[in-house]
UniProtKB/TrEMBL annotation:
Coiled-coil residue windows: none
Name this protein carries in UniProt: Alpha/beta hydrolase
UniProt domain AB hydrolase-1: residue ranges: 37-289
Species this chain originates from: Spectribacter hydrogenoxidans
Highest taxon, organism lineage: Bacteria
Pfam families in the record: Abhydrolase_1 (PF00561)
GO molecular function: hydrolase activity
Cross-referenced SUPFAM superfamilies: alpha/beta-Hydrolases
Keywords: Hydrolase
């Protein structure tokens, strides 16, 4: 494990790389080392920067040791370099819509094994898992398949993967399958900014200027669209988690916005219905993002859930 030893004194943030399941994963943490660990798992094609700083700071201020990391194939973590398995994403979408198997270089189960390995390498067990979108899918799988590593589960704007659930709005789904017309930095920022504005929370999300600044910061850190495509294949190849969700026994909270145009609220409701004794928190006006006006509210709700889980485990 490597760690940036100079950062704690300067910023209170510690960072480094750790080997997990054969991959070098980039991680960052804040908050007291003595606090119960909260591990944040981000979604499709999104670096650890996708967890907003005020949200992370609020969890740390509540006394938690807050860890966020880059999934494999994104950010500063290892990238897939093997040849083969270059499945066409559009064909994979088509096969998935008909319930046909999809070939992928790796699956969500592999990414869940990465997460379990990171928990072991950083000595976090048992950790409170908080996953957003694809990260929620990964967190669900870790809670079911590695229960000794998990203290509680929070699944945000995610899904059970059941084929019977409604799809997102057609215009949004088509947008998610599009790519920038060039690799020019300004073009990429404009494309991704428009995408985030389409899926974000109506009336309370970042402005275009704020999205552009955040996306630009991410581009300066890393840009790896091939990894996003492979992560999407991992989702499509993994299918439904309905039976897996029924095996989860840790205290579970499902958070979903009622204005999510990409993953409709029905997905959150079904996820909560599948997990024994899960609580569903429907957030009015929330889309497929973590909008600034909700940072404190979401952090407080997750901290309260984690605190309750700690009491239940005591």
């Amino acid at each position: 494990m490597s760690e940036n030893a100079s950062s704690p004194a300067a910023t209170g943030i510690r960072s480094g790389h750790v080997e997990a399941n054969g991959w070098q994963l980039a991680w960052e943490e804040r908050g007291p080392r003595s606090g119960e660990p909260v591990l944040l798992i981000m979604g499709l094609g999104t670096q650890l920067l996708g967890w907003p700083e005020p949200f992370c700071d609020a969890l740390a201020a509540a006394g938690y040791r807050v860890i966020r990391f880059d999934n494999r194939d994104i950010g500063l973590s290892d990238k897939w370099t093997r040849r083969g398995n270059q499945t066409d994403v559009r064909m994979a979408f088509l096969r998935s819509s008909f319930g046909l198997p999809v070939q992928a270089p790796y699956t969500l189960a592999d990414m869940a094994a990465d997460t379990a390995g990171l928990i072991d390498a950083l000595d976090l067990a048992p950790a409170h898992l908080v996953g957003a979108s694809m990260g929620g899918m990964i967190a669900q799988m870790v809670a079911a398949d590695y229960p000794d590593r998990v203290r509680s589960l929070t699944s945000i704007m995610s899904t059970s993967g059941a084929r019977s659930l409604p799809r997102g709005r057609l215009r949004v789904m088509m947008r998610m399958g599009s790519r920038p017309v060039s690799n020019d930095r300004a073009v990429i920022i404009e494309h991704l900014t428009t995408t985030m504005r389409m899926i974000g929370s109506p009336g309370m999300q970042n402005s275009r200027e704020q999205w552009a600044e955040l996306i630009g910061r991410g581009l300066d850190r890393s840009y790896h669209p091939a990894g996003t495509a492979r992560q999407l294949l991992a989702i499509l190849a993994s299918g439904s988690r309905e039976s897996l969700l029924r095996r989860i026994r840790v205290p579970s909270l499902v958070i979903h916005g009622d204005a999510d145009p990409l993953v409709p609220l029905a997905h959150g409701r079904h996820t909560a219905a599948c997990i024994p004794d899960a609580r569903l928190w429907v957030v009015p006006g929330m889309g497929h993002d973590l909008p600034p006006p909700l940072h404190e509210e979401l952090a407080t709700g997750i901290a309260d859930h984690a605190s309750g889980a700690g009491l239940a485990a005591a």
